[in-house]
Amino acid sequence: MKQEIIIHNSVSLDCSLTGFLPDMGLHYKIAGDYKPDAHLIGSETIVKGIEMFREGIPDEEPKDFEPAQRDSVLPWWVIVDSGGKLKAVLHTCRRFEYCRDVILLVSEKTPADYISHLKARNYHYIVAGKEKVDLRSAIEQLRKNFKINKILTDTGRILGNLLIEMGMVNKISLLFHPVIIGEKGYPMFSDLKKNLNLKLIKSEQLENGCVWMVYTP
Q1: Phi, psi of 80 (to 5 degrees)
Q2: Phi, psi for residue 197 in degrees, rounded to 5
Q3: Judgement on whether residues 45 and 142 belong to the same structural domain of the protein
Q4: What is the Cα–Cα distance from 110 to 124, expressed in whole angstroms?
Q5: Of 130, 123, 18, which Cα lies nearest the Cα of 77?
Q6: In a shared domain, residues 133 and 62
Q7: Residue 1's pLDDT band (boundaries 50, 70, 90)?
Q8: d(C-alpha 133, C-alpha 126), whole Å
Q9: Using CB atoms within 10 A as the burial measure, which of 45, 112, 115, 160 is most buried?
Q10: CA dist., res. 59 & res. 82, Å (int)
Q11: Which residues, 6 or more positions from 201, have their beta carbon under 8 angstroms from its beta carbon?
Q12: How confident is the model over 96-112, as a mean pLDDT?
């Protein structure tokens, strides 16, 4: 089966990812309807999410050293973390009830103590790339070793734009909210170095004023 990579984001009319309150219920309903095998997430997104939604990091417990035992229909969380930024917080990801378990993507330069940390806690991990994670190689290993064929990423512009630049994205799914952010915005595609022609394959106006649009490159 051919792999499919979907970028799904909630944005303002001027494509800002920040500066407004998105309809997260609708966002995740659409994400879930894609039925991905995995969510691809950058480590910075995890850090920011924990800062926003948690009051302190809970201590590890014995259960955090074992793989999560959840329904195999749930998506994996695949986290890019070659720098080992999540060493102290990974157990909070593993505890998330709507993910099957966590897979880390690391590189040959990832600190050895972080690799030991992952092994001691029975995390799956893939080594791909010398300095930084080689996404193309890592995603191919996800297909071969974990039968992950449909990947959704909704975590911001850095990872998404890298995948676009590499020509690996099959769909761009945007949930437009009726707000303009202007100069204080964080434009989703501002890191792209070249134009990208798109074909509109879906457009749906929703009751809350949002418009859901899906494109293929």
Answers
A1: -85, 115
A2: -80, 135
A3: yes
A4: 15
A5: 123
A6: yes
A7: low
A8: 9
A9: 160
A10: 23
A11: 171, 214, 215, 216
A12: 96
